[in-house]
Amino acid sequence: MIFGKVELNSPYLWKKGRWSKPLIDEMGITHNGRSHAVSRALSDFGSEESFEQAAKRFKEHYKYELSASTVNRVTKGISREARVYVEDKLFEAGERYGEDTGKETKEMLIELDGCEIRTAKLKPKENTNEKTLVHQRPKKEKVIHWHEVRIGLARPVTSTAKIYIGKMDSYPAVVNQLFNAAVLSGMNSKTKVIGIADGGNGLKEELENQFENLQFILDKTHLKDHLYETAEELGIETKDRPVWVHGYLDRISKGHVDRVIEELEATYKGSKTHRVKRLIGYLRRFINALNYDEFKKNGYPIGSGEVESAHRSIPQKRMKLPGACWHPATINPMLSLRVMRANDWWNIFWEKQTNEKLAA
After folding, report:
1. Helices (H), the chain
2. Cα gap 308→301, rounded to integer Å
3. Which of 157, 174, 255, 313 is the S-S candidate for 107 at Cβ 3.0 to 4.6 Å?
4. Per DSSP, what are the bridge partners of residue 215?
5. Max alpha carbon distance in the chain (Å)?
6. How far apart are CA 200 and CA 152, in angstroms?
7. Bridge-partner residues for 124, per DSSP?
8. What is the pLDDT of residues 132-168, one digit of tens each?
9. Where are the domains of the chain?
């Protein structure tokens, strides 16, 4: 039963000197409260679709009508508990790094990528004395911003079983969570780590800082985009750009990046060198991350397609609904709900919640 099992002490709720309050005594539900099972059902629906649609689904399944604002409040409350659970689980895994588990994972794949989520905050309107009609408070306006959410995954190279992380935070904090996820997936100090990501400022460096034995691979699509942007700024005609781009890309993939840099420096001297200098700097920065043919021979991916797919299924499916805006403070908790679902931690989380309530 969605509301749980209730045993009454008496067939009467009250008689002289005795009374029974089953909702309070047996289920701990007070005024405007909900049972543990109802909270689970609401957050289950609310973590998957809009709060309005989740309220409709709850009514369809359980024949009780609740408002979208109630689903919102319950889901966000559970999401804060989920954030604590996810962060504790990952932190505890990271603390075990270096312990002898008896298992050996020779190669670990990690991927990290970002996408933007729309956020909104209310602030008082500027240059106006307008007030609300009822409470006569200063009127507010909605301020829209976009915040980058970073999604990562870790899995042994020979396995398809992944552990995901998701966080709106700096590279050091996000990479630390990714490190903990890799430990949870079986990484130890002897594991060779294959890291695939784009060329975000400081990302490669932070991955190298936190992961031992890292072979960084620059996502090949991002290199191709750089080459196309350079071709455009050099004035190469659209029809000729693919030949120009793939001529360099093929040579880079075969491990001849040094020769490509020398040729670019020799060929494009003169007035239009700014974009070429930028490309050369990019190639030098990732000089050990571009040998795509060799990486493929070793069985490593050369693109971050797995984590890009995770973007669609973890944050975007729920948090990029048409017209959706989120307060910045709700993003990481909601991401934790989504990460729990993706990692199959949902039932474990609720078992823990149930055990804690029974023990209280």
Report:
1. 22-25, 36-46, 51-62, 68-95, 171-184, 203-210, 220-233, 241-253, 257-267, 274-285, 292-297, 305-311, 317-319, 328-342, 346-359
2. 13
3. 157
4. 194
5. 100
6. 14
7. 140
8. 676 667 777 788 899 999 999 999 999 999 999 999 9
9. 106-315
The whole-angstrom separation of Cα 144 and Cα 231 is 35
Closest CA to 222 of 203, 205, 239: 203
Structure tokens at 200: 């975000």
The percent of residues in the chain predicted with pLDDT above 90, rounded, is: 70
Taking only Cα atoms into account, the Rg of the chain, rounded to an integer number of angstroms, comes to 27
Mean pLDDT of 280-296: 96
pLDDT-based confidence at residue 121 (cuts at 50, 70, 90): confident
Strand arrangement, sheet containing 140-156: 163-167, 140-156, 107-124, 192-197, 214-218
| 332 C-beta neighbours (distance < 10 Å), count | 20
Tokens 């005024």, located at residue: 31
**Interstrand relation of 192-197 and 107-124 (parallel, antiparallel or unpaired):** parallel
pLDDT at 1: 45
pLDDT band at 129 (very low <50, low <70, confident <90, very high): confident
Local confidence band at 261 (pLDDT 50, 70, 90 cut-offs): very high
pLDDT top residue among 206 and 140: 206
Q: Which residues contact 124 (CB under 8 A, 6 or more apart)?
A: 138, 139, 140, 141
Please, which pLDDT band fits residue 5 given cuts at 50, 70 and 90? low
DSSP 2-41: TT-----SSSSSEETTEE--HHHHTT---TT---HHHHHH
Calpha distance 45→30 (Å, rounded): 23
Q: Is 147 helix (H, G, I), strand (E, B) or coil?
A: strand
